[in-house]
């Protein structure tokens, strides 16, 4: 397995950039897809946002300074692209980003790529009731099992604040799931 430093050097080399980018795709495509999918909900939308994410990574790799891990930098791009996508949809539909997410959730039941049970659907609805930052933190910790140190780099927030956000999110989700 290639290490991140070596991969980065190859990505910044015109001679090796194409091949290194294919390696980058194979290493991170699935993880980034699920991160994005947890935010935008729809498979097709997640594919579009993932494509935009990798285009940005490819175009901007030369300006990556290495102040964080390459993985963290790409996650930050993916997160920003997903949020931008939701906000653009909200603007286009003349509604709020929260309503766009609820609409996406309602469509999740008919999404042929969603294989979740009723409880998973209810969990997604509970997550959608959280403020944006808590949603991100919960998804990254619960679904991607990211360490707080990695999340801190990605979201540019202290680990303590992330732990508090996650704790609050879990309490709100538990309350939502215990209703009915």
TrEMBL record:
Give the keywords, sorted. Sigma factor, Transcription, Transcription regulation
Protein family according to the UniProt entry? Belongs to the sigma-70 factor family. ECF subfamily.
Highest taxon listed in the record's lineage = Bacteria
Please identify the protein, giving its name as recorded: RNA polymerase sigma factor
**Which organism does this sequence originate in?**
Mariniflexile aquimaris
Q: Which residues form the RNA polymerase sigma-70 region domain?
A: 26-91
Pinpoint the RNA polymerase sigma factor 70 region 4 type domain residues: 121-173
Q: Which SUPFAM superfamilies match?
A: Sigma2 domain of RNA polymerase sigma factors (SSF88946), Sigma3 and sigma4 domains of RNA polymerase sigma factors (SSF88659)
**InterPro entries in UniProt:** RNA_pol_sigma-70-like, RNA_pol_sigma-70_dom, RNA_pol_sigma70_r2, RNA_pol_sigma70_r4_t2, RNA_pol_sigma_r2, RNA_pol_sigma_r3/r4-like, WH-like_DNA-bd_sf
